[in-house]
Structures are given as C-alpha cells and as structure tokens.
Amino acid sequence: MTLDHEVQDMLVVKSEQLAMARLTQTSIAKQIGVDKSTTCRELKRSIPKRGRGSGEYSATNAHRKTIVRQKTKPKHTIFNQELKESARHLLVVEKYSPELIAAYWKKIGIKGVSHETIYLWI
C-alpha cells in the first residue's frame, strides 16, 4: 500500500517533531497513525550514523534520501521486439537456455528480462 505524497510529507514532518521530543518509536507511530514497524523503518533509513547530524532525524534529509532511492531503484524492463529477436537467435542458433540468455545479457550489459519471462514467452 502506498501513501499519497501529501500524507507522506505530513507524516515525515510529524515524525521529525516527535523524534525531536525524544518519544519512543511506538508512541510516535500511535500519534501519526501508522504501524510501529513503519516508524522504525523510516527512522532507520533516515538517521545518519556518522557525520554532521548523526543520530538526529531530519525531515528534509529523509525526503532527499527517499527521492534518491526512488530514482536509483531498478526499473521494470519491457520485453520488446529487439530483445525477442535476440532471444530467438540465442535459442535457435546458439542453443542457449533461457537461464543462459538472461546471464549473457547481464554479462554484456544489456538490460534484459529474467529467464522466467523468456520461458513464458516460449
């Protein structure tokens, strides 16, 4: 379940205020209306362990880190016609298995699909 961005921002700011008040993670979770594991995960991800601001929760830094995580996470690759032609060649001519095709694409730096997707296509 994903939260609306406005609600997420409100929760981050409220978390910062409550964390600054030195409340427990459970009481912070109760006050903002989320599960305590959500609060724990947010604080664990966002509190720096060393350097300036270490040990302190900052909503601004938490938001910045979230944006970076969203931009750098692996994206879904579409099994387009070019990949299908490559897979067809590797299956028929080179006699590669779908596992080998997926590993080959990964080795040469092609953003391919998983062997499971190739099996579904066959």
Helix content: 55-70%
Overall mean pLDDT stands at: 83
Question: Total number of helical segments?
Answer: 7
What would the principal axes of the Cα set say about the shape?
elongated
User: Quick one: how many beta strands?
Assistant: 0
Give the oligomeric state: single chain
Rounded to the nearest angstrom, the radius of gyration is: 22 Å
**Order of SSEs, N→C?**
HHHHHHH
What is the CA–CA distance across the termini?
A: 33 Å
Q: Classify the secondary structure makeup into a structural class.
A: mainly alpha
User: How many separate domains?
Assistant: 2
Indicate the low-confidence ranges by residue numbers.
none
Which sheet architecture does the biggest sheet show?
A: none
Residues in β-strands, percent: under 5%
Q: Any key phrases for this structure?
A:
122 residues; mainly alpha
Describe the structure.
It is a single chain. The chain has 122 residues and is mainly α. The chain has two domains: 5-72, no CATH class; 81-121, no CATH class. Helices cover 65% and strands 0% of the residues. It has seven helices and no strands. The chain has helices at 5-20, 25-32, 36-46, 59-72, 81-92, 98-108, 115-121. Helix 1 packs across helix 4 (59-72) and helix 2 packs across helix 3. It is elongated, with a radius of gyration of 22 Å. It starts with a helix and ends with a helix.
